[in-house]
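User: hey, got a sec? need Toluene efflux pump periplasmic linker protein TtgG folded
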Amino acid sequence: MLFKRLQANRKYYVLAVALVICVAGSLFWRESQQTAQQAAGKIPLVRTATVGTAGMSSQAFTYAGEVRGRYESQLAFRVGGKIVKRCVDLGAAVQAGEVLFELDSQDLTQATAGYGAQLAAAQAQLQLAKNNLNRYRQLFAGAAVSRAQLDQYQNAYDTAQAAVRQAAAQYEQGSNQLEYTRLLADQPGVVAAVNAETGQVVSAGQTVLTIVRDGAREVEISVPENRLEELRQVKRCRVTFWALPGVAVDGNIREIAPMADQITRTYKIRITLVNPSPQVKLGMTASVQVTPNLPPMTAVAVPVSAVYQTGSFPAVWVVRDHSVSLRPITIGTMANNTIEVLTGLEPGETIVTAGVHKLQEGQMINSIDGELP
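Assistant: Yep! Here you go:
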């Protein structure tokens, strides 16, 4: 009886142990499945692409500008006064010697008349001194007067001559001042700006009119300082016009400003147009395309989204055997959402182009292959 009871207990013991093993195995399998699922969930999905080469030396830059004249004259009166007449309008074509503005000349006319009266009086005194001198020369020749008396009349004659010259100079100056009340065009051209109106009182030297002379036409652009050295090496550029879609003109860089503008901090550059079309008018909006004369350089072009910034050093994620590693690069110019990589990448390598901010060094990835732009 005891033996049978022990055998029955042993069977229960074995069943209990088997049950415990089954429960533990089930729990372990479930935990391993959860761990695998969590691990699979940590593998990010990113977009990758194989880099190629692109010639970046031929990249062109476009600047907006305005058509200007080669020579622009800011005209002003040489005397002050009140404007009584404006003879030209904005945009009018003028010829050399044409009257542009007139000042009130009443005061200067009276002053000139006074100078004329002074000249006439000085001439009368000169004639009197001349007659007296001639008479005393005759008396001196007859020994009727002394040498001292003759010298006095000679001195009076010389003084009268000087007074005539002084009065004549004042009269000429007054006549010139009177003539300056009319502002004349010194060269043929086009009125580009009018800065004064009839009834306004202006001072001498105050700009009242701007004339663009006939002749060469230029385009003025503003360039940042980091492009100056490239532009110094450029011999010719291409100019197009917003209002003239079918017109393109070659241009030569003529002048680069030595100092930056105090407000915009850019440098003014003048580009002379080579044989411009008659359709090109002053003030038109122009686009200047400049291709720097850089030495040939083979660079790698990658999307801007592929660059991962770590502090002040740019880098990209390079894919190898389904894992990523961060590699520092040296970048160049940027254009059309791509950036030039000078060093750090070789053609044929695979990089991450989207999802760079959720990666870690050595991390496994799932990738979707793409194409570089």
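Quick note: The chain has four helices and 24 strands. Let me know if you need anything else on Toluene efflux pump periplasmic linker protein TtgG.
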